[in-house]
Design brief:
Structural Genomics Hypothetical 15.5 Kd Protein In mrcA-pckA Intergenic Region, Chain A; 126 residues; 20% strand; five-stranded antiparallel β-sheet; two-stranded antiparallel sheet; alpha+beta; 7 strands
C-alpha cells in the first residue's frame, strides 16, 4: 500500500473517534499535510508531516505507517511519531490550563442561607 485517504488514516491512528469527524476536521481546515490544508480524500504517504488540531490539542506528527483498519491504541501509536516541539507545546498548554483558577458552576434555584450571607457581605449590608 503506497497511499491512504487522510480521513481514514486519522481515524485508524485514533486522532478522531469516527471517520466522519476526521473528514469534517479536514473540511474545516484543521488538518494540514506538508504545510497545505488537506481535504478528506488527500492521500497520506509514509514520511508525510501532518498538523492535526483537535479537541485534545494540536499535534505535529510524522507518518510512519499506514493502516486501513482501526485497531488497539498500542498499534495506532506505531503509525506516527510526534515531533519534540509539538510535545513540549502541548505540555506547556496543559500546565497553563492547570494553573488557571477553576470556577465553580453556578447553582440553580434560590440561594442558600450561606449564599445570602455572602451576597449581603458583598453589598455591604452586614
Amino acid at each position: 500500500m503506497t497511499g491512504l485517504r487522510i480521513d481514514k488514516w486519522l481515524w485508524a491512528a485514533r486522532f478522531f473517534k469516527t471517520r466522519s469527524l476526521a473528514a469534517r476536521a479536514c473540511e474545516l481546515g484543521r488538518i494540514e499535510s506538508n504545510g497545505q490544508q488537506a481535504k478528506p480524500a488527500r492521500e497520506v504517504h509514509v514520511g508525510d508531516m501532518l498538523r492535526v488540531r483537535s479537541e485534545s490539542g494540536e499535534f505535529q506528527v510524522e507518518v510512519l505507517g499506514l493502516n486501513e483498519m482501526r485497531g488497539p491504541a498500542a498499534v495506532a501509536q506505531t503509525l506516527y511519531r510526534e515531533t519534540e516541539a509539538s510535545r513540549e507545546q502541548r505540555q506547556k498548554t496543559a500546565e497553563a490550563r492547570k494553573a488557571m483558577p477553576a470556577f465553580e458552576a453556578l447553582r440553580e434555584g434560590r440561594p442558600s442561607k450561606r449564599d445570602r450571607r455572602v451576597i449581603n457581605r458583598l453589598r455591604g449590608r452586614e
